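Running low. Got one?
___
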Amino acid sequence: MVNLPGRSLIQSEFNFLSSAIQRLKAAFQASMTMKNRTLHIVAHSLMILAWVILVCGVVVSIVIAIKAATPLAQVTFLLVGLLLAFINAAFLLGASKLIHLLINVDYNLEQIRDSLKADN
């Protein structure tokens, strides 16, 4: 095996990333307790709904804009439809991310509580 100058650095970075991924997997599995499973489902459903609303909003806006009578109406329907689709999707994605954030805060607080109990 050839000993390259940066090989040990690359190996140590790989080991660090591998252990970090393992810790993240363990944290995710631990956060999927019964009390948080429903919240995870709701958050993922909101994310899926946001993307569906965004795609449908863009398609419907384009279709309505094409069928509008005047060029001004076409531009207006297109811009307003796209704007409403993006706003709705942004709010739903934000709600989904907020739920995930609160779940992670709950998990971290439980970890802190458990470590404080272990110290006493």
